[in-house]
Amino acid sequence: MLYAKTNPTEKRRLFRERLATGELLRFPGAFNPLSARMIETKGFDGVYISGAVLSADLGLPDIGLTTLSEVAGRAKQIARMTELPAIVDADTGFGEPMNVARTIQEMEDAGLAGLHIEDQVNPKRCGHLDGKQVVDEDTALKRIRAAVDARRDENFLIMARTDIRATAPGDGGLRLATERAKKLVDAGADAIFPEAMGTLAEFEAVRAAVDVPILANMTEFGKSDLFTVDQLAGIGINLVIWPVSLLRLAMGSAERGLDTLNEHGTLEPILGQMQHRADLYTSLDYEGYNRFDTNVFNFQVER
Fold first, then answer.
1. Do the beta carbons of residue 86 and residue 112 sit within 8 Å?
2. What pTM does this model have?
3. Measuring CA to CA, how many Å separate 166 from each of 107, 170, 174, 252, 282?
4. FRET label pair with 230: which of 166, 216, 257, 277, CA 20 to 30 Å apart?
């Protein structure tokens, strides 16, 4: 009933233990609290909270328009609904190094297991769009140092994302990415998120460059090929996210439903594609609430 039984401190400890095993952990992106619960039910290892999804949820593009309070508030709503650890996209940290420090503590208080801070300039843009710009090395490292200094729970994961691969063609961009990854680790980053790697070999190069967990972003319609879990595990990747996938699936289904209404005047033709009311009520734990108050769930749901 209500929220997760596992407190945030314990979630973080258990998450860091799993991450230390070297196995590949799967973190689909939740677009709301209920989808986070579904991710848990389906047996995944954690929940990812995408900045692009949070922006889209507000009807905004992913160009740094969301605020710290908006992201922390929504992330808290999602993280508290599942026993799984949740990692949030904190963009560039919402400002200068002092803002980054505040971001860390706000996200700790919101119950997150970790976050990533990127090295794009402000305002940032989606990591799989052209024309990205990154900050200089000194600024990028100051962000991570500020994050590490602000952390109060040693198990709160501070991941550094670098978008520098896209700033130079071919092997030049990859060389810049591996060099920056090494320096971000030296600055205190617990893990590295190399954004928009084009090939499996590029992920392998980053994997070989640093001795911390590596995250792979398997977003659709982007710069990276959609590698399988087995392919990524085979080269030593430790975390994989599908950040916007569930939102895309849900919006695609919603659009088809509206088209059906326009065409047929009823949703009868696609009832079989919907989540049944009974399954929704199971996800919401109506029976658990009924144990608290027998007036809550005093009815039968017919299938």
1. yes
2. 0.94
3. 28, 9, 8, 29, 45
4. 166
- Alpha-carbon distance 46 to 253, whole Å? 24
What are 74-98's pLDDT values in tens digits? Answer: 999 999 999 999 999 999 999 999 9
Q: Single out the catalytic residue among 163, 217, 238, 248.
A: 217
Is residue 48 annotated as a catalytic residue, yes or no?
yes
Which domains, from first to last, does the chain contain?
8-244 (3.20.20.60), 251-292 (no CATH)
Q: Which of 45, 108, 118, 190 is catalytic?
A: 118
Q: Indicate if 57 belongs to the active site.
A: no
Please report, as a single letter, which amino acid is at residue 252.
G
Q: Which of 12, 16, 26, 116 is catalytic?
A: 116
Catalytic residue among 40, 45, 48, 238: 48
245-268: pLDDT as tens digits: 999 999 999 999 999 999 999 999
Q: Is 23 a catalytic residue?
A: no
d(CA 259, CA 267): 10
For residues 55, 181, 48 and 88, what is the CA-based torsion angle, rounded to 10 degrees? -60
